[in-house]
């Protein structure tokens, strides 16, 4: 029987932190004792260009080495990308869709036609409030932890500390941890 692998496909724009978030998520899951993969896919490498990142998380070794084609979770960091048909490629009614948007769930459903579970979080707004800049990645990680249970917040907090403490200091670490927790608390999902 093949290993059950939780696969995530991230859609964002270069510079929004999707690659960093996928890496933090993978490292947090690795610290939990899971097998992981995290890798990006770029088109034109310039700030603002659409890009994808991918994660695989499993309790058993992962032998796949390709893009995620049948995602368990699709994360959209920029809601202006929702008209792109690639967003829903390979999804099923069991796939979860998390979107960074200030718009309601029904707007996302109408925009995409997606029939599975849709979750929304105002990640950019939260990031602006907590960090003073619109980088939504740590907020989205909190939403992923809440919606999927694939990673525990404590492990993500540890990764934030590892990545930011020496470079930016304790104040920035604490701001990112607050943003993470707000993403966890403020994500809302369809039934």
From TrEMBL:
Keywords: Oxidoreductase, Pyruvate. One of its GO terms (molecular function) is oxidoreductase activity, acting on the aldehyde or oxo group of donors, iron-sulfur protein as acceptor. It comes from Fervidobacterium pennivorans (strain DSM 9078 / Ven5). InterPro entries: Oxidoreductase_gamma_subunit, PorC_KorC, Pyrv/ketoisovalerate_OxRed_cat, Pyrv_flavodox_OxRed_cen. Residues 14-185 form the Pyruvate/ketoisovalerate oxidoreductase catalytic domain. The keyword Disulfide bond does not apply. The keyword Oxidoreductase applies. SUPFAM superfamilies: Pyruvate-ferredoxin oxidoreductase, PFOR, domain III. This is 2-oxoacid:acceptor oxidoreductase, gamma subunit, pyruvate/2-ketoisovalerate family.
């Amino acid at each position: 029987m093949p290993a059950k692998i939780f696969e995530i496909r991230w859609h964002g724009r270069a510079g929004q932190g999707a690659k960093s978030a996928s890496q933090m998520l993978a490292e947090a899951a690795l610290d939990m004792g899971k097998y992981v993969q995290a890798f990006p896919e770029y088109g034109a490498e310039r700030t603002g260009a659409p890009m994808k990142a991918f994660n695989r998380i499993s309790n058993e070794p992962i032998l796949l080495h390709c893009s995620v084609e049948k995602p368990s979770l699709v994360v959209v960091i920029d809601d202006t990308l929702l008209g792109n048909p690639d967003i829903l490629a390979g999804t099923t009614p069991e796939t979860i869709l998390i979107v960074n948007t200030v718009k309601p769930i029904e707007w996302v459903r109408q925009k995409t036609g997606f029939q599975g579970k849709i979750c929304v979080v105002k990640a950019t707004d939260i990031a602006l409030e907590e960090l003073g800049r619109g980088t939504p990645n740590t907020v989205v990680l909190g939403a992923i932890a809440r919606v999927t249970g694939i990673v525990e917040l404590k492990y993500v907090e540890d990764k934030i500390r590892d990545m930011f403490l020496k470079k930016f200091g304790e104040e920035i670490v604490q701001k990112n941890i607050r943003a993470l927790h707000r993403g966890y608390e403020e994500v809302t999902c369809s039934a």
